[in-house]
Amino acid sequence: YELISLTPERTPPLASAEVTAAWMNQIIEQCILMAPEQYMWLHRRFKTRPEGVPPRY
């Protein structure tokens, strides 16, 4: 197993809940993109795929 701990580049923006949530989602996205096959896809958000693109599920 490998554990990667990321240090945020800056403190979270507190302008609004939406801005803070977007900042958090960007960090989560970075983590998922490191190993997308390990991410637990709970719902089928990407059911419809462009023609020729393999299914995610």
Textual characterization of the structure:
The chain starts with 16 loop residues before the first helix and ends in a 23-residue tail after the last helix. The longest helix has 18 residues, at 17-34. Helix content is 32%, strand content 0%. The chain has a domain at 15-39. By secondary structure, it is mainly α. It has 1 helix and no strands.
Layout: helices, strands, pairs:
Layout: H1 17-34
Extended strand count: 0
Average pLDDT metric? 84
Shape: flat
Biggest sheet overview = none
Annotation field: number of helices = 1
> Beta-strand percentage?
under 5%
What features would you highlight for this structure?
single chain, 57 residues, mainly alpha, 1 helix
In short:
The chain is mainly alpha-helical.
